[in-house]
Amino acid sequence: MLDLARIRAFLFDMDGVLYRGKQILPGVREIIELLDQRGISYACITNNATKTQEQYGKKLAAMGLSIPATHVITSAMVTGHYLRANYPRGTTAYVVGMDGLHYALFGDGHFVYTEQRPDLVVQSADFELTYAKLRIACLGIRAGARYIVTNPDRSFPSEEGLTPGSGAITAALQAAADVEPFIVGKPQPTMFRVAMELINGTPETTLVIGDRLDTDVAGAHAAGMYGALVLTGVSTREHLTGSPRQPDAVFDDLTRLIAALNDA
Ligand SMILES: [Mg+2]
Asked: Is 36 a known active-site residue?
């Protein structure tokens, strides 16, 4: 049973939890203040692998949220940490992706960029995708490179509607190279486990706060953590009724979570 008094680390999903579109949701500033006061660690996690931590920090600041960039964990960063733990320095990699992923892999020189027979092909969303990139990635995978994907999201919200995301590029590469990738991002447990390690959490004392039963809560549970739902995003009370997957707690919004933390 979830006992909020025992939670020492929080992992917040972002869209639908901290903000929706460009609008900050109720209680965000207050909960960050409360966690800071109590010395409870937290991070905001996102499947979006296109931006660096720094670029995300700027995005949050532009919305009026004073969450330090160091408290943002992207699937590109988690992919970098996961791969660094599993492959020695000097491992070669080809990337289909943007700044966020390039920086996560090559920023500290652990991995070496190559287009010729890479050890790894690592792929995320790429707004500058070309046939040439798909071709290099396909040939690399067919020559034996391990195929890693930052996040499975097939579409990406934009002002004009849903646009192709990481998973859409994965579909193309899977069709071309005929191989199953290893996926890091939500709802896969790797995302939650590595993010938890980055904030020095333990599974029994970490709570994931998300707006989706199928990604946030399911992923938290797969990683052995508690998962709570806020009803400010995708999942609704109607979704909860009859769902085999049930969160450890449900809050109408973050102000209700604050009240529960104060009562705990
Ligand atoms: Mg969300």
From this structure: no
pLDDT, one tens digit per residue, over 60-69 is 999 999 899 9
- pTM of the predicted model, to two decimals? 0.92
Q: Which residues are CB-contacts of 41 (< 8 A; sequence separation ≥ 6)?
A: 8, 9, 10, 35, 199, 200, 201
Cα 16 to ligand 1 centroid, rounded to whole Å: 5
User: What's the confidence (pLDDT) of residue 218?
Assistant: 95
Domains, in order of start, for the chain: 4-47+186-263 (3.40.50.1000), 88-183 (3.40.50.1000)
DSSP, collapsed to helix, strand or coil, labels residue 50 as coil
pLDDT score of 156:
81
Cα of 21 vs centre of ligand 1, distance in Å, is 11
